Amino acid sequence: MSKQQGIFDLTELKGKIAIVTGAGNNGIGWGLCKHAAGHLGMHVVAMDLHKNLVDSAQQRLQRAYPAVKVLGIACDVTKPEELAAALSAIEAFFPNSEIGAVFANAGTLFNKTILKSSIDEWATTLNVNVLGVVNTIQAFLPKMQLSETGSIFCTTASVGGLVRGDGGTASYQASKHAVVSLTESLSFEIARRSPQIRVHVLCPCIVESALPTNSKTNAQEESGEINANDIQPSSTPTIDFAMTTENHAQQVFDLIAANKFYLLTDNVRPYVNHDYPFEALKIVRERMENMSDLTLDNAGAFPTEPGDTKTSTLTGAMFREARKRKTPAAK
Ligand SMILES: NC(=O)c1ccc[n+]([C@@H]2O[C@H](COP(=O)([O-])OP(=O)(O)OC[C@H]3O[C@@H](n4cnc5c(N)ncnc54)[C@H](O)[C@@H]3O)[C@@H](O)[C@H]2O)c1
Fold first, then answer.
1. What is the CATH number of the domain that holds 181?
2. Could you list the residue range(s) of the whole structural domain that residue 313 is in?
3. Which of 197, 182, 201, 199 is nearest to 264 (CA)?
4. I need a surface site. Which of 5, 43, 190, 194 has the fewest CB within 10 A?
5. Could you read off the pLDDT tens digit of each residue along the chain, which spans 331 residues?
6. How many separate domains does the chain show?
7. Distance from the CA of 270 to the center of ligand 1, in angstroms?
8. pTM for this structure?
């Protein structure tokens, strides 16, 4: 029986549509849009919450990649009716093109412990990160199943969806574990019926983005503190040891082409220009070893050096080097 579907020739994607949610803020989704248009010759649909963001994405992408067609759609992934309307808009705008890739990438993060998170923050996190992915699958997958040519359905989880729960981002980690699990289920569910659709779960480590700021902005807009018309695409902060969104997108498509299901995009050469990886696989293995012993090791909650972060997962070379340099550890 086949484990997966074999090496994927990405040139098959040329002229097809790449749909990317959470693409309006110069983060991971933005990088995927640029790669799809610029390297793969795909038409692109950039989706995000606010009209300003997607209009800007559409204009910038169309200017940079005139050979392909670009559409920006304002769409809240927690609302199935908005995703259904997005599919209709895509069908009308691209009457002769098939969907080649969907990246269910929109996400939100509140950096708080369980006791300090409000239930509203938990609800938003689970609604966007988990149900938003489910809604995106339900909106686009049936259409993709009608085509017999190869395509990609990729959800965005996080390395946090593969490692053990840690201090500070409990709701985020829990949501990303759910994304990993539901994407494994999706892969299994359609393995026989729709083998032409390759399912992947993206588990990034540290990529340049303004995710915490954007999450706060969106929450403020939701509560009426700021007006959606005033929201502009965020500028991307420089984060120590982070991968650029362009290099990250290259790694994503390299892993897809190589037939990997878990797109664990660690901060390694040639995608970064340093030798301080996150060491994600090491931490995943430690978790698996603990699980096979039925134990949980909380040693990370007792840091030995003053000022050290309490963590069981931010322990790789990247974080050791950040501590040595006394720069803030990457998020
Ligand atoms: N940057 C990293 O290091 C990193 C690491 C692991 C996982 N991730 C994941 O990558 C994905 C992209 O994040 P990013 O870091 O590029 O930050 P980002 O802020 O650029 O992207 C997230 C986008 O999702 C959008 N969004 C939020 N709620 C939405 C909703 N209801 N409907 C539609 N869009 C919505 C936001 O407006 C934002 O543009 C997220 O799922 C995030 O959890 C990022």
1. 3.40.50.720
2. 280-325
3. 201
4. 5
5. 467 788 999 999 999 999 999 999 999 999 999 999 999 999 999 999 999 999 999 999 999 999 999 999 999 999 999 999 999 999 999 999 999 999 999 999 999 999 999 999 999 999 999 999 999 999 999 999 999 999 999 999 999 999 998 888 999 999 999 999 999 999 999 999 999 999 999 999 999 999 999 999 999 999 999 999 999 999 888 889 999 999 999 999 999 999 999 999 999 999 999 999 999 999 999 999 999 999 999 999 998 877 778 898 999 999 999 888 876 654 4
6. 2
7. 24
8. 0.97
What would the two tokens of residue 70 be?
Answer: 């670009």
Indicate whether 274 belongs to any domain. Answer: no
Whether 38 is covered by a domain: the verdict is yes
Q: Are residues 186 and 315 in the same domain?
A: no
CA 211 to ligand 1 center in whole angstroms: 6
Q: Look up residue 321 and give its amino acid.
A: E
One domain for residues 287 and 144: no
| Of 186, 184, 158, residue with least CA distance to 173 | 158
User: Do both 303 and 198 map to the same domain?
Assistant: no
Both 257 and 314 in one domain: the answer is: no
| 22 Cβ closer than 6 Å to some ligand 1 atom | yes
Calculate how far, in angstroms, residue 280's C-alpha sits from the geometric centre of ligand 1.
Answer: 20
CB 49 near ligand 1, within 6 Å: yes
Token output for 307: 């000022």
Choose among 179, 94, 89: nearest CA to 137.
179
- For the CA of 79, the closest atom of ligand 1 is 31
204 lines ligand 1 (CB under 6 A): yes
Judgement on whether residues 232 and 300 belong to the same structural domain of the protein? no
CA–centroid distance, residue 81 to ligand 1 (Å): 21
Atom of ligand 1 nearest to the CA of 132: 31
Within-domain flag for 5: no
Q: Is the CB of 31 under 6 A from ligand 1?
A: no
DSSP string over 190-222: HTTT-TTEEEEEEEESSBS--HHHHHHHHHHHH
- On whether both 154 and 62 belong to a single domain, the answer is yes
**How confident is the model over 275-286, as pLDDT tens digits?**
999 999 999 999
**C-alpha span between 282 and 313 (Å, rounded):** 10
Question: Among the atoms of ligand 1, which is closest to the Cα of residue 207?
Answer: 3
